[in-house]
Hints:
Blueprint: H1 3-35, H2 39-64, H3 68-93, E1 96-97, H4 101-120, E2 125-126, H5 128-151, H6 153-164, H7 176-210, H8 215-240, H9 244-269, E3 274-275, H10 278-300, E4 304-305, H11 307-328, H12 338-345, H13 348-364
Antiparallel strand pairs: 1-4, 2-3
Helix pairs in contact: 1-2, 1-6, 1-7, 1-8, 2-3, 2-7, 2-8, 2-9, 3-8, 3-9, 3-10, 3-11, 4-9, 4-10, 5-9, 7-8, 8-9, 10-12, 10-13
Amino acid sequence: MSPLLITAGVLGGFVALIGGGELLVRGASNLAAAARVSPLIIGLTVVAFGTSAPELAVSIKSCFEGSSDLAVGNSVGSNLSNLLLILGIAAIAAPLAVNARLFRLDIPVMIAAVATLWFFGKDGRLDRTEGIVCFVALIAYLIFTVAQGRRESAVAAAEAQMAESEIAAGGDATTSRAIGKNLLLVVVGLVLLMLGANWLVTACVALAESFGLSKLVIGLTVVAIGTSLPELVTSLMAALRGHRDLAVGNVVGSNILNILLVLGLSAIVAPAGVDVHAQSLAFDIPVLLLFSLAAVPIFFSGLGVSRTEGVVMVVYYGAYLSYLVWHSMQAPPAQSTPTELLLFVAPLLPLTLLVVYFGWRKSAS
């Protein structure tokens, strides 16, 4: 790919992503008003499904092309990007609120999904049976989420009235015309997000390949960040527009879908299952699991993510990318050792304790 096409892909991708994110957040928040459900539920389901579509497309395509290690690298890398980079940037832009229901169901499901991937992948492969288990677990989770959302309709009604006041047309959010308009906004927004992510990923992969990076590293970095751009733009737009529940729900929901839907469905439809690279088992999946666990006390301190916590998340993500680049440059390529994993995650405990302590001090004052 020529430098001109790479530049055009990057610029066009960013324009489409920003426009699509704005339309998606506006349409989704108005749909929450029309359906009388919490924006959190919309973020965990409708928006998360839409923004996880690039990961699903990339993973299934890579499985059929014989590069299933790219599928796992893409999903695991996207989840790390969601948890650290996307939530971090969104919190820096506007401090985020974490709904209490996330601690009762969604965050435990997110952690359990990562642990299940690690357990299933110990033999180096996700087979069809394991993919079916993941997919059935996803269906059960979605059914429970929707049912619980209906029971919370009284609280959602108050939030819906607030969202209705933001509708540009100024009419009734429950009319067929308003619902149709907002559905159109969601669809157009998702299309723009997918097009923008595809243009940007294609250009960035061509650039990364010119530097000789491996498929696994490209999946964990360039493709993972690129396919996470819909979540980034959506969460950032939601945070800036005041829909903080939607911003956090989108990330948590996407992380659940990236494993249970993306890798589960890939394992079901792929002819030989999904290969789990030894490097992913030795480093990337354990790191994702540890960061998912560390998110619980961070979220719980003050029931939110402050700007300081957002900065810490982004810095740690930068350290993760730096390690991947350093490791890929080693000759000959070798699997990460337990010592390297320990050295990387060792600062996580004191950092988490410091963040929780200052969050507690701030909420108590």
